[in-house]
Amino acid sequence: MRRAGGRRHTLRDIAAALNLSVNTVSRALSGKDGIGEKTRALVRAEAERVGYVPNSMARSLVTGSAMTFGLVITNPSNPFYAQLISSIELRAREHDYSLLLTVTDESAENEARAAESLLRSSVSGAIVVPVQAGADPWQRLGAVGVPTVLLNRDLPDLGYRFVGTDNELGGYRATAHAIACGARSIVVLEEDLPITTIADRIAGYRRAMTEAGLSMPRGSVMRVPTRRHDQAALPWQPQQAYQVARRMLRRARLPDAVVAGNDYFALGLYRALAEHGLKVPDDLMVIGFGDHPFSAFLSPSLTTVRLPAEEVGEIAADLLLEEIAGGRSARPLKQLIAPTLVERDSTARKR
Amino acid sequence: MRRAGGRRHTLRDIAAALNLSVNTVSRALSGKDGIGEKTRALVRAEAERVGYVPNSMARSLVTGSAMTFGLVITNPSNPFYAQLISSIELRAREHDYSLLLTVTDESAENEARAAESLLRSSVSGAIVVPVQAGADPWQRLGAVGVPTVLLNRDLPDLGYRFVGTDNELGGYRATAHAIACGARSIVVLEEDLPITTIADRIAGYRRAMTEAGLSMPRGSVMRVPTRRHDQAALPWQPQQAYQVARRMLRRARLPDAVVAGNDYFALGLYRALAEHGLKVPDDLMVIGFGDHPFSAFLSPSLTTVRLPAEEVGEIAADLLLEEIAGGRSARPLKQLIAPTLVERDSTARKR
DNA sequence: CCGTTCAACATGAACGTTAATGTCCGGCCA
DNA sequence: TGGCCGGACATTAACGTTCATGTTGAACGG
């Protein structure tokens, strides 16, 4: 069944066993024509018998394509990215691509090494969530002709295709909904990272406030410090948001609503509010971001912005497939998918 | 800087530019001796100038090792597996291995294709969470000499190394803690999958009950139906647990405590209890499993079993590295890491 | 019956790298 | 001074495929 020493069977083994040329065996197995039906059957039978598995490195070396997607993600423990991984992996697999995963953990150094690694392994294409600490590492990918799609965070300097969530719209919808529910003063709780995702959400918040003619006094946007690198790839920590929320609650005048940058922050906020004896939504409304699996089951259930993770992942994979195929698609170069507001009890104030 | 047509520079390009042989360039860049210092400097400078990136497929083809870990996971949206991905990817990267990720989504067919795919790409080794629908797909890996480590779920028929959580102990500790807190009748809420993880937890539950001399009437173990394959790789759904919990609450006699198979189930249970006007922990205690990031911030905060995800991932990677290196390690073949109970308010009954 | 055609296969080269030998030449020692 | 050694490089082969191009032999038409 297998050769001595655990070595794998090759085309040559099969060819020798059947007194055929290597090429004939190759063509027979890959289904190309110019091979007699009886020969093909013979080859297939022998390949089956010895458990032949093609060596994709050898194949890739000659074809030039490794049939591999490189996926570069900041943090798999972020549920949004976890879903992206799933949907991209599925799409890749459906098209016979493998997935080479690299985690950057928001580190520029890791990002540079990731780009280098993708180049070495000659991936067919790359889907990248950039750290946004500079475009250099990813510029090289495009320079040597590796199709690259940016995911969730854009680097406009490079002309790459991009698909992500419309965070500006998400921030706008969250804030507009709070306003519609009667909030006049609103505080935003956002992570302290210099990425467009967050800046866009805040922009949406400002737009909603401005449209409603509401003011945004100093301290309306509160930053939750990021504690990455303490351990490997932590998920967001509600604890940090909890402490920031406690600072907020010491203020003289409380806001009517808090818009959180993600559902974990809302969770920390819930605790701080409970400790202060404040009721959600009557004393203060809370809106999350991300619609994490737990959010519907909090008490009160959390109004939040649902992200189109699956759709974004699928589009990213499709964009990459198109670019690999070489056909210029009809799709726009940059694509923003609208998130949807999920209204739940944390904003259901009795009027 | 780069060649026309986006093609990559090769050793041959550098050799031609410097009037050297390809081999000399190779040895100069890979740091082997037998190369003059001035030549080496020249080669390095030229490689740097043209932005040379080695082709790892060609290298792998001749060395026989692809410097790649194959990681096969059932569902990245499971926070436990997400953390495993992170820690394994980190460990792999530290040792210059890349990570080839495949998602099986609890499907035996996907699993078989995953094994095939790992064989094709000649991974240096594989870390696998088996679906446990049969050992056949993974048997082949070992047969052709691919070092394989089983993760979290064992397949005892194969003689592979295994590292996972001691779920029996976890189930025992959760149950014993409930008993210590005064519970006499306890119901277990478990997912409806035929995997050892779950069976072990239930065994631990039974052991704790037996040791305490408590009975386990019919209906003590309730199964939450799995709804995978509705969408791609869903995280666990509290909704299913919620419905099962409602069935439980219709019973004549309520248990003193419920031990949930994961924290999401506890979440669904919380809602069902709240709707019935039951207070945790005074009317009923709840213990979760997994210590998901949200669990500490529920109200009441959830007593749960913390899984050693990071440690398990690191050990899995280390086991694989050892096996790849060929050295028989001093470690036991099968390794179970003890989870720890995290006591919180959901079992803090006022005595 | 001969030239043409085409199916069915074989042969040789190539992909980019590493590993095993070869070759040259300068310097060392007896 | 002759033989030998070893450093510094070159040459050749190999990894397992695929692709482009040969080569055979039989069938076929005029």
Automatic annotation (TrEMBL), chains A, B:
This is LacI family transcriptional regulator. InterPro entries: HTH_LacI, LacI/GalR-like_sensor, Lambda_DNA-bd_dom_sf, Peripla_BP_I. Keywords: DNA-binding, Transcription, Transcription regulation. It comes from the Bacteria. It comes from Nonomuraea fuscirosea. It holds the Pfam family LacI. Residues 10-63 form the HTH lacI-type domain. One of its GO terms (molecular function) is DNA-binding transcription factor activity.
